[in-house]
Backbone:
């Protein structure tokens, strides 16, 4: 099934700015999303550094409380809505879902382009909100602070941004579900799907079902503010806790939109770099679906101290513990895949292994928070902040970076410098743990979150955490330099630099516009190393691009860096 | 391989048990947790450490196994990966068995939560009202205090919480209790303090900050619980809060007390004492004895009566230029108001 195709790559097949801005090619749309979400990541990162720098010392360090409140709000809102939710599905998912299914494109290419521009349009509202100033509610926009008479109009601009970007998320979800159901190439039945597809598919289901609730919540907030309707504001006869229910009904499933794609990538990385089929494939696939469904039932665990009834807290706590099970299954199965494998510690694998370790910490600390009496103590402290950064950064971002390094040669046709990549990884890993491990201790010792000023006794841990954030930042800057260098001067990448049995590697690096020269027929699964031919697993340059059979030779020949 | 696995499992059991029993919370506090100063704290800490050590064991097992496999099965010449087999029994085992542990956590956590949610029938009932950015407490006899709560030791106390503006939350780390203060409804929390002394209270639900450089808002919305003997509490209720201990030895007790009230009752958030800043509220320095122009055009001499009225009914006579600034009423006792007046008078 080797398709080291003829013709120009998708990067050069058409030329000119318009051919990019109005492209219908899922790969180009993926690249557009990648660039936009990485820009958002940089902006969110700048706000993070501002927040951590202010927290170096108690009292005023570089800004007033008012400005600080905006800084942490924008850090959260930008990271959640403009980076973490879209990044893996819209950038990497768009690029690889059709290829992995043996398809030419997604089911609705024009809808795909529309999704991107809706996302950009929504982002413009966010920019206006930042400029107009004073979005200081936290990314959670709790009422009545966000809807009271004195609240800034910038809150409305930001919630409009979220409303619009939500449609991008919904339409992408619709597209992916349709593509997975209808455009699988012959031979690719559900039990042969790459686990990346299972993860993206489960994510798409959540996107379609949950995001409309966010849209409605934002609309109700609008109506309250603009029409002075009493929905959440008690001064108008509303109920503030109702907002929390609406908000978290979307935002809890949203965190599974964030983590499932990261887990999906880790499955691919563990398989390729162990050279082995993922252990317990059906359980891993099923766990993605289980997490997606169970995720809709646990939103109240964000509200244990809100004044909810004891009965409600009991139900939400019990259901929250159930969600831990499918996540645990994945961890066990990934580790079991390493058993009797052939393990290579290429940079993507370093990120996959980091995910396993750091997501385990994040998940275990979730147990503290699901336990009612302990959560009453830890809620709204730095313990929660540390927990969600471990799952979102230690989990999703590690997965995202692993996927980015893994698929970089495929998307760009270039290799990156493995040594630089590993140095960047080290800074990121160490910096991340410095920043957030200390925050567990801050929280358990009683330090509340969203605090501009703090008691002297917390200064040591805060200072250490802030230094850690600088180390983390250095890692990312180093990584950026490495990728820029790769684009400018990187060595040419062979079609399958990792010798993977995955389907996406059976295309040129970068792929041609239509992905495949002829329609693929699948006769094996993506992790069937014992069924794949030597040509399919060959990690060098085929001598003759037309020939489907690589020259005979040992597999270790022509090894690319990493 | 199997034997090694068995050996690891066999030794981890006793080790875990040992850690679980020794690594609990301590009354004087540990690295992770503050001192235990309420009857609820011990149970919360025991559960916390149970989860903590279980997590440590699990984390070490996962990480060590992962690293071991990465090393043991690193790619070497001539050694190929073995095709993945099936082990359905193992998979079902590790899918179902965590449920036992998780159920224990749920049950223990829920029972602790119910204990903390339902106050004993004989609890002293105190009201706590949160507003941006202060706490007002009201005792059973109608007495009120700002940002300072006095309670007797070894006696259950039930706080009925409310808010007059946005969400706040009453958080006492040393007691391990927290509850949101929600505008438009009442919530409750209760505790029984076990140690004499002062205990820190934080606001734990983000509630904004004043614009510009005028204060820290949410992170400055602190309070102190004074845990005293039953006799001291009874005296307190009878005579109202008296001057703090460190003012008793001062030459002018009331000026000292007034200065402390200025800081702890929330006056400092808006009224400066440098003689310069006149926003968001009039400066206190040089205020006493001055003639002020009021918003309605009349003028007034700033004396004891005017100051007292401005504390209890701030909207009665608002100075020109401050018509849009809303000062909330402060319910200080007569003695406290005397002290504040003495302090303002002392600022020449």
Residues:
């Amino acid at each position: 099934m080797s398709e080291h195709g003829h013709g120009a790559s998708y990067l050069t097949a058409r030329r000119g700015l318009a051919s990019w801005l109005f492209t219908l090619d899922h790969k180009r749309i993926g690249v557009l999303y990648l660039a936009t979400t990485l820009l958002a990541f940089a902006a969110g990162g700048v706000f993070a550094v501002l927040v951590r720098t202010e927290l170096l010392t108690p009292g005023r360090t570089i800004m007033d409380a008012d400005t600080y409140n905006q800084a942490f709000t924008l850090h959260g809102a930008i990271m959640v809505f403009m980076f973490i939710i879209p990044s893996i599905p819209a950038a990497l998912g768009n690029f690889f879902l059709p290829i992995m299914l043996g398809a030419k494109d997604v089911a609705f290419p024009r809808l795909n382009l529309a999704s991107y521009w809706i996302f950009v349009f929504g982002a413009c509202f966010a920019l206006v909100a930042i400029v107009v100033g004073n979005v200081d509610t936290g990314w959670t926009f709790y009422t009545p602070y966000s809807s009271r008479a004195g609240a800034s109009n910038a809150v409305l601009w930001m919630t409009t941004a979220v409303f619009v970007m939500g449609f991008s998320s919904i339409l992408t979800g619709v597209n992916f579900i349709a593509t997975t159901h209808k455009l699988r190439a012959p031979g690719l039945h559900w039990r042969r799907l790459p686990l990346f597809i299972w993860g993206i598919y489960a994510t798409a289901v959540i996107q379609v079902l949950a995001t409309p609730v966010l849209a409605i919540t934002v609309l109700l907030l609008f109506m309250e503010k603009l029409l002075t309707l009493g929905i959440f504001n008690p001064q108008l006869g509303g109920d503030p806790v109702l907002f929390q229910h609406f908000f978290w009904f979307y935002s809890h499933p949203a965190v599974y939109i964030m983590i499932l794609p990261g887990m999906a990538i880790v499955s691919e990385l563990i398989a390729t770099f162990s050279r082995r089929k993922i252990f317990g494939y059906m359980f891993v696939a099923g766990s993605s679906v289980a997490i997606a469904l169970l995720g809709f039932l646990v939103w109240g665990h964000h509200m244990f101290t809100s004044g909810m009834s004891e009965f409600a807290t009991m139900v939400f706590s019990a259901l929250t513990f159930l969600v831990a099970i499918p996540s645990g299954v994945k961890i066990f199965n990934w580790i079991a895949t390493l058993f009797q494998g052939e393990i290579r510690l290429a940079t993507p694998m370093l990120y996959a292994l980091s995910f396993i370790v750091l997501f385990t910490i994040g998940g275990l600390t979730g147990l503290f928070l699901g336990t009612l009496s302990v959560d009453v103590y830890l809620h709204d402290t730095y313990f929660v902040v540390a927990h969600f950064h471990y799952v979102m950064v230690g989990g999703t971002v590690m997965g995202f970076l692993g996927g980015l390094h893994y698929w970089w040669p495929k998307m760009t046709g270039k290799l990156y410098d493995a040594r630089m990549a590993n140095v960047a990884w080290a800074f990121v890993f160490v910096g991340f743990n410095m920043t957030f491990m200390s925050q567990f201790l801050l929280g358990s010792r009683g330090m509340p979150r969203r605090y501009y000023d703090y008691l002297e006794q917390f200064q040591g841990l805060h200072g250490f955490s802030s230094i850690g954030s600088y180390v983390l930042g250095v890692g990312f800057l180093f990584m950026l330099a490495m990728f820029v260098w790769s684009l400018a001067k990187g060595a040419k990448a062979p079609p399958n630099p990792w010798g993977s049995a995955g389907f996406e590697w059976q295309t040129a690096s970068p792929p041609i516009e239509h992905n495949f020269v002829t329609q693929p027929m699948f006769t094996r699964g993506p992790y069937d190393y014992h069924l794949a031919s030597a040509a399919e697993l060959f990690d060098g340059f085929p001598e003759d691009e037309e020939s489907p059979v690589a020259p005979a030779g040992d597999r270790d020949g022509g090894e690319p860096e990493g | 391989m199997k034997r090694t696995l068995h050996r690891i499992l066999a030794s981890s059991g006793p080790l875990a048990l040992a850690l679980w029993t020794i690594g609990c919370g301590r009354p004087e506090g540990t690295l992770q947790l503050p001192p235990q100063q309420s009857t609820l704290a011990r149970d919360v800490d025991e559960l916390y450490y149970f989860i903590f050590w279980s997590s440590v064991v699990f984390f070490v097992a996962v990480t060590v196994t992962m690293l071991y496999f990465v090393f043991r099965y690193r790619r070497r010449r001539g050694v190929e990966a073995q095709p993945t087999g099936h082990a359905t029994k193992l998979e079902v085992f590790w899918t179902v068995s965590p449920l036992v542990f998780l159920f224990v956590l749920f049950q223990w956590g829920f029972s602790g939560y119910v204990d903390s949610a339902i106050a004993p029938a004989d609890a002293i009932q105190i009201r706590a009202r949160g507003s941006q950015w202060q706490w007002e407490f009201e005792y059973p006899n109608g007495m009120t205090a700002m940002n300072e709560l006095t309670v007797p030791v070894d006696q259950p106390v039930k706080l009925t919480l409310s808010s007059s503006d946005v969400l706040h939350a009453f958080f006492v780390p040393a007691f391990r209790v927290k509850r949101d203060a929600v505008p438009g409804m009442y919530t409750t929390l209760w505790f029984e303090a076990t140690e004499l002394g002062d205990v820190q209270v934080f606001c734990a639900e983000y509630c904004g900050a004043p614009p510009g450089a005028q204060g820290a808002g949410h992170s400055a919305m602190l309070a102190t619980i004074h845990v005293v003997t039953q006799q001291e509490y009874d005296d307190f209720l009878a005579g109202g809060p008296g001057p703090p201990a460190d003012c008793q030895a001062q030459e002018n007790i009331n000026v000292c007390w007034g200065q402390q009230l200025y800081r702890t009752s929330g006056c400092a958030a808006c009224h400066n004492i440098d003689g310069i800043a006149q926003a968001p509220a009039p400066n206190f320095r040089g205020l006493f004895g001055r003639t002020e122009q009021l918003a309605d055009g009349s003028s007034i001499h700033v004396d004891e009566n005017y100051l007292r009225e401005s504390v209890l009914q701030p909207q009665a006579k608002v100075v020109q230029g401050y018509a849009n600034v809303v000062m909330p009423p402060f319910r200080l006792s007569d003695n406290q108001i005397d002290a504040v007046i003495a302090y303002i008078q002392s600022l020449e």
In short: Chain A has one domain: 23-537. Residues 377 and 389 of chain A are 19 Å apart (CA to CA).
